[in-house]
Design brief:
The protein is of the alpha/beta class. It has one domain: TIM Barrel (Alpha-Beta Barrel). Helix content is about 40%, strand content about 10%. It contains 15 helices and ten strands. An eight-stranded parallel β-barrel has the order 3-4-5-6-7-8-9-10, surrounded by four helices. Strand 1 and strand 2 form a beta hairpin. The two termini are about 35 Å apart.
Length: about 400
Amino acid sequence: MNKPVLPMSSLSLNLPKADGSIENYRLAASRTFPARLEGTLNRIAFSAAHTVANPLADVDPWLTAAVDWDKTIAFREHVWDLGLGVAEAMDTAQRGMGLDWPTSLELITRSVRAAKARNALVFSGAGTDHLAVEDAKTIDDVIRAYEEQVAAVEKVGGRIILMCSRALAKLGRNADDYAKVYNRMLSQVREPVIIHWLGDMFDPALTGYWGTVDLDKAMDTAVAIINGNAAKVDGVKVSLLDKQREVDMRRRLDKRVKMYTGDDFNYAELIAGDEHGFSHALLGIFDAIAPAASYALSRLAAGDEAGFHDVLGPTVPLSRHIFKAPTRFYKTGVVFMAYLNGHQDHFTMVGGQESTRSTVHLAELFRLADKAGLLANPELATRRMKAVLATRGIEN
């Protein structure tokens, strides 16, 4: 459901360019998407959702997370209205970059409660981040840390995403170490979990995960563990930004195990799939483009693959920009999109992370979001972009 193409927008603003010059940018014709799911979906799609900061809390942001709980849950309700699931307390929510375990557990508790009230889909991250890497001495320390978080999430009624562990990346020397940890944890979980494989471009502390820097060997280890515990694994989320590796792994998985793409560079073609299969989705970019993602997926389910690509294809350049190296700073772009689209009334982040991207980066994000038709209210987005630019010395 797209509006007819409109005449060129009369909206314009001054935006910086990479060469240091300023251009007068005129917005493209607007495009709107339904605020609720229309039709059905034939892919399971999670948005890894961000956390909304409380900008008026009197805290030191680098040290203390101050969360606006009402706006944070309201954003999840927006995602659920669109037929998407929420992947809670993941790296998009700034887990490990401003959001500690106690705050994450409160977020999970609130999100699970809100999901149950509307029978919505939510899985939540359980890891070992309350165990300081320097305090982790043995593999058993890692197992105990995982057990503590898994038990806490299950106690509040949550489903588990078993997150990668920085402590395990430090201590795990080989495939046997990883098998010991994952076999133990998967033998204990109440319901099948999603295994999370996050590449070191998202978190440098995860270099060498699965016991090796050789990604072929790492995949062998991961596939062996997952297939050996297939009854306890709902799926695996792979975030390596390497579409061929994801396809290769997808084809090797036990048929009971879903592949959830975490590839924020190539998600459109991976979700569409090929003659051998397709990926479901668990993506940070689906936070920023949820209405478009929902509509595109509904077109795919209706057999309109051209319509799917027509909507989702133009979002890929924006996603590649938001997730450009250093990839771990992508959260800034996700939250900036939420600000531009009116889901929060400020551009303030947990941990002060709004400072991790340049003015030029944010200006290019605005251009790409506009060209993809992702600015829900162009007048509001333009006004807010001008306000941010003014604080950075660019007058409009």
